[in-house]
Each structure stands twice: as structure tokens, then as C-alpha cells.
Amino acid sequence: MSPVVRTAAPAIEMAGVEKRFGTTEALRGLDLTVPAGTVCGLLGPNGAGKTTAVRVLATLVGPDRGTARVAGHDVAREAEAVRRAIGLAGQHAAVDEGITGRDNLHLFGRLHRLGARRARARADELLMRFGLAEAGGRLVRTYSGGMRRRLDLIASLVTSPPVLFLDEPTTGLDPRSRQEIWDTVEELASGGTTVLLTTQYLEEADRLADDIVVVDHGAAIATGPPARLKAAIGSRLSVTLADQDQLGAAAVVLSALSGGDAQVDVAERLVTVVTPPGVEVQLPSLVRELDARGVVAQDVAVRAPSLDDVFLALTASATPRRAA
């Protein structure tokens, strides 16, 4: 996670942004603020509007209503200035597999109007910085999936943009390749780049993001640092029993200690409860209460809330979606 740098002018702003595709409302008054020099994780179910939000900010589609600004520039009125200030890596690698990694970066540099010498120098600089120097002379078709995604990411950095959009950059990657992308994002953030990251991986957002915005049905339903969002969801208590007949007694104990509604899984002989926010139950207290009622537990656990818990709690009432 990057050091949080708060400035008066946010790097990314959206206010009341709406976007419709035919009869589908992809964005319904989305509000978003990302301070400069921070990483913002944009989370939400499939079809919640995450990719559409990125496309609006990157000037790929225009908003129907509301305003959006990137690096101080209005996406509708100053689209060219916005494009000069951003880098974009989408869900699918945009590099050419028929040429080398170095030639890909050189090509991107020339497309961005860098001179031939500067484009070559920038390609070598990026390959060295992000651990692809030895592979730079190889055809991209020989790269692993993780190497292709890393090359795609650094191709978006040819012009050293202050704002970077990453739309699900690690989808489909193995754990090692995902780790490589995470390391790259962390290095960029530590250097002051503002990153807007959409992801389906809650662990990814928890590790990388300074702030998180949860989007559902095209609108922001929760925002804040990961720790604060998790603090709003209680801990999860669980007890696995040896005797199915004691499930009722265990449920009474868990409900009494936590103030929450215990859930019973008869097949698994499992009782769980999520504590209300601000309520803490210590493991020794739980064990003592179970012993006092003669409940024999095979396993007792108190687990702090995760972003998965936050996500599930916030989107539990989700309905089928049709827009990305």
C-alpha cells in the first residue's frame, strides 16, 4: 500500500455521473474522489459499472450526465489533455505478440510522439525497471501470461502518466504472476502515481488500496480505507461440534455472547454468528461459556472480518446485472 498523500485537488473526480446503453443504466449517479498519489480500489459485482466508470474517465465513452475530471481536466471538454495525463491497462493485454517486448514499448513510444531515440531509451528503461530486460529481445508470444500482463502494464507508462487506470489487471493469472503485478503496482504507487484499480480479487484490493469504493447498480454504496470498512462488519465466530444434538445449545451461547443471530449448519455440525460492529468476543470467554453448558466443541474460532465479508454484506441484495 502506498503512503497516502492528500492534496487539495483530487487526481480523479466523478460527481453524479450517469451512463446508459440503450435501456441499461450502467452508471446511476456515481460519485468518486481519488486523492493524488493514492491507490483506489473499485470493487463491485459483475455488471456493477466498474469498467464503464474507467471508460468514462479514460474518455473512451462520454457521460450522459454529471461531471468527471482527471488530473484537473474535464473528460468531456478537455479529452485530449486527459489522455495525455493517463495510462490505461485493460482486462486483456494490448501488446503485439508477433514482435519483441522491446519493440512493443518502442512502438508505444512512437505512437505517443516520442522521438526514435527517446522511445528506445524509454523502452530499455522500463524493461530494466520492471524486470523484463532479459526478455526484452524475445517475441512476446514466448512470454508467460504474467510477463505479457506486466509488459502491457508498463506499456501504459511510456509517457510517465501521473494517473494510471488498471481494469482487472490480474484476471486469469496464476499466484506467482499476480504477485509480480502487485509488486509493480506497489512500486508505481510508492513513486507517486495515482492508481485506480478495478478488481475481482478482494485480497488484491486489501493489499494495494489506500481507499476502496464499492459500486453496485452503477452507484457507490460504500467508501473508505479497507480497515474502516472491515471495522463496520463484526467478527465471525464459529463452533464445530462433536454431537449434532448440541447445536441448539451452542447457538444460544453464541447469540448471547455476540448479540447476533446464530446460523446453524446441521450437516456440518457448525454454528456461526457475525457480531454486530463494535462487539468483541474473546476466544477464552466463548470456550468457558460452552464448557459451562456442557457443549463439546471440536473446533472454536474467532475470525476478524475480511474484505470478502464486507463485499458480501454490502452486495447481499444484488440482482442480475447486464452492464459491465
Automatic annotation (TrEMBL):
Keywords: Antibiotic resistance, ATP-binding, Cell membrane, Membrane, Nucleotide-binding, Translocase, Transport. The lineage of its organism: Bacteria, Bacillati, Actinomycetota, Actinomycetes, Kitasatosporales. Transmembrane segments: none annotated. It comes from the Bacteria. Belongs to the ABC transporter superfamily. Drug exporter-1 (DrugE1) (TC 3.A.1.105) family. GO terms for biological process: daunorubicin transport; doxorubicin transport; response to antibiotic. Its EC number is 7.6.2.2. InterPro entries: AAA+_ATPase, ABC_transporter-like_ATP-bd, ABC_transporter-like_CS, ABC_transporter_ATP-binding, DrrA, P-loop_NTPase. This is ABC-type xenobiotic transporter. The keyword Transport applies. The keyword Cell membrane applies. It is a peripheral membrane protein. GO terms for cellular component: plasma membrane. Residues 12-242 form the ABC transporter domain. It is found in: Cell membrane. One of its GO terms (molecular function) is ABC-type xenobiotic transporter activity. It comes from Streptomyces kaniharaensis. SMART domains: AAA (SM00382).
